Amino acid sequence: MARAGLSAEVLTTTAADLADEIGFDRLTLGAVARRCGVKEPSLYSHVENAHALRVRVAGAALSDLADRIADAVAGRSGHDALSAFASAYRDYAAEHPGRFAAARMTTLPPESDAAAAARRHSDLTRALLRGYALGEPAETDAVRLIGAMVLGFVTLEAGGSYAHHPREAQASWAAAVDALDVALRNWPKGS
To answer: Residue 191's pLDDT is what?
Structure first.
């Protein structure tokens, strides 16, 4: 019998909160059970296994992040949209490091809500790029470049890689977004 108050949604939220505290890579069913004040077997009435719970956390994070991005870029285009888009990712990563790590999960079942939320990110990026009129295959390359720049910067910043220099990370971030905008506006033709 399922314990009163527990549900897949409650476990997902609890796991996401815990991931932000201890890291997504350290998230276990045992840790979630302890946080909920129950024995681990109680969780199996609501989630199949640890991987299924991790996929649920990834889906929730991807969906939340996509909502933030959509709100940030609404009514914007060009550099303004790019800056809002990239900053939404950076802010989310700073506020929710465990959820952000979950959003990068690569083993998502193709028909899951998490996979659908991941596709929404690609759609949002492509919508952003309409303002740059790149066409294919340049648009796909640009999606990958934006992802690499944002994820790379955010990951290095979170790991403390920019703390060794007096220049503020924010100044480098602004310069990187400006440079990315220049690259997108001046994309090589025929590549």
So the answer is: 61
